[in-house]
Amino acid sequence: MEHAVTHYSGGPPGSPPPGPPGPGYGWNGGWAPLPDAPKPGVVPLRPLGLGDILSGTFSAFGRYWKPLLGTAVVAYGTALLVACGAMAVAYALCTAEFDVIERSIRANDSEPPTAALVTVAVTFGVAALFGVLCLMAAAALTQAASPAVLQEAVLGRPVTFRQVWGRAVRRFPAVLGALAVPWLLSLLVGTLLSAGYVALMITIAENGGGGGTGVWAAVGLGLGLLLAPVVVWLWVLFSLAPAVAVFESAGPVRALRRSARLVKGSWWRVFGITLLLWLMATMASWLIQMPFNLLGMFSMIPGMDVDHTDDAAAAVQTMLSVGGYVLISLLGTFLSQILVTYFPQLTTGLLYVDQRIRREGLAPALIEAARVPPQPRY
Prior knowledge:
With 378 residues, this protein is an all-alpha fold. It is 77% helix and 0% strand. It is built from 13 helices and no strands. It has helices spanning 2-8, 50-63, 65-93, 95-106, 114-153, 161-207, 211-237, 241-247, 252-263, 267-299, 301-304, 311-360, 363-371. α3 (65-93) crosses α6, α5 (114-153) packs across α12 and α6 (161-207) packs antiparallel against α7 (211-237). It starts with a helix and ends in a 7-residue tail after the last helix.
């Protein structure tokens, strides 16, 4: 895939300068559409309209679903296994505390074992945080896989799981660094809004909204509401950073700056197209997950028709029913999550290509690259 990286790079070697526009551009900088623009891959090599980006997103997923799905299975599967392992370790470390809590419950002690409860809460809190970090790492890996696929999809070339995985792993640190800024901003706003809302509800329930807690709740909610539009603006501004990190082999800081330059002047267009694809993917995800949830509910029906006089048999049947429901629901959640994960990412990658075609006249370089036979790298 080195040929694709060369032609997509943002630096001087092998990439068209952003100055003189390429064929098809008008003297005023606007685009004069080429009726015969070549389409070697999933999109025509000219500035893309909404229909081009929508069809290109679905076409890329349809043609390259195997490496995309394989990357998601390995990334999220590994993250889930590691997260479950962390929870198992936390449970093993808190065995003594669980015994203390159980004895306290059986003895009906009025004073709960505070030390044991704190130890359990802290241990499982750390394990849960580690699990969240694992899932975030998996999300960053899939964010790196989408542009790795599009590098070849735009040129109409095949790509294997091994190639996509290798490229995604190599660019994973840069993509993770580029995603850290919008993730941290979202976490800040979400924390402020959640903490402010909870504190406000508690204050209203206790003393009708008065007191110092009410003031802090209002401050938290106010800051969250004020920062929310800023976070959305920055999120869209930096939305092309993962694609830049993969296409141009850029570091996190350079990817963020480059994304801001590419989005500047087209913020509302990038926001609208990304939001539209995200809503479509979310709706499709819900439609896929719904039959799995219904199937899981039906799997629990046999557990309701058991002889409850036999406590052991009832417990086993209940466990099997609940386990079947959980497994079926998790399968539906996993399949739906892939849609929500990949469709907006593929759209973002195509928006990156579109912005470079519009701003830097990348189309001639892409047309030339499409004519060059791919050189194997492995």
